[in-house]
Amino acid sequence: MQIEITKPGPLLDERGRLAQVGWSRQQTLDCNLENARFYMIRPFQRFRIKRWDYYAVFTPRRFFSATVADLGYAGNLFVYTLDFATHELHEEGLVIPLGKGISLPRNSPEGESHFEDSRLRLHFSARPEGRRVEVNWPAFHGGQGIQAEINLEYLPAHESMTIVIPIGRKRFYYNRKINCMPAEGFIQYGDVREQLKPSESIGSLDWGRGVWEYRSFWNWASASGFLPDGRTVGLNLGCGFGDLSAATENCLVLGGKVHKLEQVTFDYNSVDYMYPWRFTDSEGRLALDFTPFKERIAQTNLGIIFSEVHQMFGHYSGQVRTDEGEIVQIQNLIGFAEDHQARW
How many structural domains does the chain have? Predict the structure, then answer.
């Protein structure tokens, strides 16, 4: 059984333990990371607490993503974009020692994420009508430059997938995934300016806070798009770390409503990630094939700090059953699935 959190309260109690464990349709717990108690020498704790805001936008032409992250010992800023027709992928990032100049909000429903210097500006904000993503990186891709101003519609009734799970005895993961936010605005990449219409462009947010084990592994799969009848449809699937007995992050998001799934199996070839993936669940509600068309490899190797991500872009096809029993047919829904190994 999956435990749904419905009562507000603090994330951590006075002794640094999780006050509640489970999943929720909105963020209900205050992210009071100042209560964390996993090192005896408390000033050292900031170097292990990790926080990030990762935005992803699918347009008819491209995938676009921007991230502001503070990993404790360093900040990480990156932007990347993939052209669906040519499969051209370009990514650039900056590492900021000790995260100096990076601002991230305490909770996901409000506040701003920000970094700006002479090289680039990333600014994300939460507003009553949704989220706003602003990016300006003039030197991106050899001076071609990339700029974006995107409004993502997110109304109060729109549900999301939030999980609170323990990792070992003292560590934890607090994460919120918002899928299927219609997007409006523009992306300018070099000389190409793409206007985004909310009837055909859509975005998502991965908001993460927590403390991981030094060696970590996870799988994550996500997609947001539109059904032929005009309804928005999204997937969020994940596994690989923490204690998932009280909650997984697996769900279908249909028309802004979360339909909770339990355990999901990621069946893929870790020698050849381009080989088709298969997703099934423990209740017989999910049966999806994922056919990759592009592999993104992102690797960081700084000795004791190591990260390697194989993020596959491709098409999902198959079916999912809602809580009410409706069979939702999914055909060629563009999304991604990843394998991530880290020492951090």
Answer: 1
